[in-house]
UniProtKB/TrEMBL annotation:
Keyword S-adenosyl-L-methionine tagged: yes
One GO BP annotation of this record: methylation
Keyword annotations: Biotin biosynthesis, Methyltransferase, S-adenosyl-L-methionine, Transferase
Family, similarity comment: Belongs to the methyltransferase superfamily.
Described function: Converts the free carboxyl group of a malonyl-thioester to its methyl ester by transfer of a methyl group from S-adenosyl-L-methionine (SAM). It allows to synthesize pimeloyl-ACP via the fatty acid synthetic pathway.
Domain Methyltransferase type, chain residue ranges per copy: 64-155
Gene behind the chain: bioC
E.C. code: 2.1.1.197
Protein name as annotated: Malonyl-[acyl-carrier protein] O-methyltransferase
Annotated GO MF terms: carboxyl-O-methyltransferase activity; malonyl-CoA methyltransferase activity; S-adenosylmethionine-dependent methyltransferase activity
Involved pathway(s): Cofactor biosynthesis; biotin biosynthesis
Superkingdom in the source lineage: Bacteria
Length: 272
């Protein structure tokens, strides 16, 4: 069983914030989306499955799904671990995960101050959660702290260039940021190395989704709670006129198959 650990808030002073994140607001937003999340999470499920495929053969003792959300991957991970924990920032997400936890223990906590003892985790899995860190290097240092010698970490995160079509279409409407900032590959590698992970194994994959109408993409983003969190965020779309202008601008990204393209850049990372 894990030994609980209170974290060390003072450690946050060791690196500058990459972005400002209101964690309480983020937890509320994901909690509000918990019931609808899986219906809008095709992309998240695809990425998580790709991450699971990178998991080496073997069985682990203490496992952790960091940012477990609705618990979609808990059953698969439970087959590979003697004991499994699911941790999420959002109590609402954990309430949803409880419906499929199947014996996994659920814990509310922040990736940048994990409530776990040093060297207490044998396998740490995290899919599309760490991009919400205010200080990525601090989050990676926490992963390093809780990993046991010989343990394994696999995680996925979004990189810069994700949703670039949406960001470009918004520029036709106004000059405010409407898409989150993400690390680029070099920044990700630097943050990992500064956290103590030498020569991290990083695979970058492009992902492309197609939508009949822009509103379908916006509904997916709202349905998973992934609205814009960086400083300067604009609340809402701002009315029908702005939405119509945005939709018109996004038509520039309609593909030959007549679907609107939404692109992501995903890093699949193995550490250990």
């Amino acid at each position: 069983m894990f030994e609980m650990h209170q974290g060390n808030p003072g450690r946050s002073l060791t690196c500058e914030p990459f972005q400002r994140v209101d964690k309480r607001a983020l937890a509320r937003r994901f909690g509000a989306a918990a019931a609808s999340y899986d219906a809008h999470a095709q992309f998240q499920q695809e990425v998580g499955q790709a991450l699971l495929a990178k998991l080496p053969a073997g069985h682990w003792g203490e496992g952790l799904d960091l940012g477990c959300g609705t618990g979609f991957f808990l059953p698969a991970l439970q087959q590979r671990c003697s004991r499994l924990w699911g941790l999420d920032l959002s109590p609402g997400m954990l309430a949803q995960a409880k419906l499929r936890a199947s014996g996994a223990r659920l814990l509310c906590g922040d990736a940048e101050a994990l409530p776990l003892a040093d060297a207490s985790v044998d396998l740490l899995f995290s899919s599309l959660a760490l991009q919400w860190c205010e200080r990525p290097q601090l989050g990676f240092s926490e992963l390093k702290r809780v990993l046991r010698p010989g343990g394994q970490i696999i995680f996925s995160t979004l990189l810069s260039g994700s949703l670039w079509q949406l960001a470009q279409a918004w520029l036709v409407v106004d000059d405010k940021p409407h898409v989150n900032r993400f690390l680029d590959e070099a920044q990700l590698r630097e943050a990992l190395e500064n956290a103590g992970f030498q020569s991290p194994d990083i695979e970058v994959r492009p992902w492309s989704l197609g939508y009949g109408q822009l509103l379908e993409l916006l509904r997916d983003l709202k349905g998973i709670g992934a609205s814009q969190v960086n400083e300067g965020a604009e609340g809402g779309l701002g009315g029908r006129t702005r939405l119509a202008r945005l939709a018109e601008a996004y038509e520039a990204f309609r593909r030959p198959d007549n679907l609107l393209e939404a692109s992501y850049s995903v890093a699949l990372v193995r550490l250990g």
